[in-house]
Task: structure prediction
Amino acid sequence: MNNLRLRWSTFAAPSRFYRLAGKLVPWFWIAAILLSLAGLYVGFAIAPTDFQQGDAYRIIFIHVPAAWMSMLIYVVLAFWAAWGWMFNARLASMYARALAPTGAMFTFIALWTGALWGKPTWGTWWVWDARLTSEFILLLLYLGYIALTEAIDDPRRSANAGALLALVGVVNVPVIYFSVIWWNTLHQGATISMTTAPKMATTMLTSMLLLTLAFWAYSFAVVFTRTRAIVLEQEADTEWVRVLATGAKGT
Result:
C-alpha cells in the first residue's frame, strides 16, 4: 500500500506532470492536425451527398463530434474536480480548471453548428427542443464553473466551490444524451449506437470518427498546455519553478 501511495504521489506531482505534458503536447498537436485533415477530406470530398438533406448534412461531421466532446469533457471535469476535492489533490483540481474552457468551446460549436443545420432542416435557427435546451444549459454550467473558480482568489476554496458546481451539474449530461428517447423532440435520434449497426454510409462514419479523434487530440494538446500554465501560476513559490525560471532566463 505504501509503495502504491508513493507511485501515485510521484505521478501526481505538478513538477513531473509539467515536464511530461511538455513532451506530449507537440505529438498531440501533430495527431490533431493530421486527423482533422483526413476527416475533413473524407467528409467533404469522398462521402456521398445525402438523398434527403443534400450537402447540408455535412455539418454533422463537425456537429456530432463537438457535441460528444462537450458531454465527455464535462464528465471528466466533474471527475477530476471531485477527486481534487475528496483527496486534496492539487493537480486534479488544476486539470479540472483547465478542461472548462475547452468544454465550453465544444459546447458552443455544437450549438452553433446545430443552428446552421437546423435552418435548412427545420426551417428555423433555434427551437426550445429538449436536447438543444439541455445542451444550452451545459454551456451555462461551463461558464458558471469558469466564473466561479476565477472569482475566488484562494486556489483551494476556488477548487472546492467549482467541484460542488461541477458535481451538481453532471446530472445534465444524461439528460442531454437521453432527451431524444425520454421526450418527443425535433432532434433526430442517435445514428451511432453500441447495440445497433450505424445508420449511415461507411465513409460518413469514417469521417465522423476521424474528426472525433482529432478533437480528442486537440483537447489533450490544449488542456495539457493550459494545465502547465496553471501549474506555473499556483506553484510560483516552489523551488522547482524558481529553478525552471532561472534556467529559462539563462538560455
About this structure: The CA atoms of residues 100 and 142 lie 6 Å apart. Residues 14-46 form the longest helix (33 residues). The chain has a mean pLDDT of 86.
